[in-house]
């Protein structure tokens, strides 16, 4: 793939996160934190597991799955590097406004 590649992996457990890191992943997607309509079958990941993953590997971990401006506060203190969303923007009446609100809330939540 070349030296400029970026490889992401999905992790639902600490063991999977460590394996992905050891296999060369540059970042992790961790979730689903909440049920989501973007997957046919959703297996939920506890926020405590997200926190454990963030503490176990030195690469960025991003929370994903059913997150939106109304429920993302559960991520406080989890240590993730960010949050990924699809439905919270794509299904919104005002996608640009929702994206702006999500950005403001995640920046505040992460203390940046």
Question: In words, what does this structure look like?
Answer:
The protein is of the alpha/beta class and 112 residues long. It is 35% helix and 14% strand. It contains four helices and four strands, in the order E-H-E-H-E-E-H-H. The protein has a four-stranded parallel sheet, covered by helices on one side. Strand 1, helix 1 (14-22) and strand 2 (27-31) form a beta-alpha-beta unit. The longest helix is centred in the last third of the chain and has 16 residues, at 95-110. The radius of gyration is 14 Å and the shape is globular. The relative contact order is 0.16. The mean pLDDT is 94.
Keywords:
alpha/beta; four-stranded parallel sheet; 4 strands; 35% helix
The global form is globular
Helix content: 25-40%
What is the chain-wise order of helices and strands?
A: EHEHEEHH
Radius of gyration: 14 Å
Count the strands? 4
Secondary-structure-based class equals alpha/beta
How do the strands of the widest beta sheet line up side by side?
1-2-3-4
In whole angstroms, the N-to-C terminal distance is 33 Å
Number of helix segments?
4
Q: Could you tell me the strand content as a percent range?
A: 5-15%
Output mean pLDDT: 94
The profile of the biggest β sheet is: 4 strands, parallel
Uncertain segments of ≥5 residues (pLDDT<50)? none
């Amino acid at each position: 793939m070349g030296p400029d590649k970026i490889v992401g992996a999905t992790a639902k457990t600490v063991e999977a996160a460590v394996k992905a890191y050891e296999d060369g992943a540059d970042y992790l997607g961790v979730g689903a934190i909440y049920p989501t309509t973007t997957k046919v079958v959703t297996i939920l990941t506890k926020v405590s597991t997200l926190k454990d993953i963030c503490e176990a590997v030195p690469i960025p971990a991003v929370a994903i799955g059913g997150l939106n401006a109304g429920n993302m506060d559960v991520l406080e203190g989890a240590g993730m590097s960010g949050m990924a969303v699809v439905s919270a923007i794509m299904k919104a009446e005002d996608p640009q406004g929702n994206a702006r609100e999500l950005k403001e809330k995640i920046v505040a939540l992460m203390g940046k």
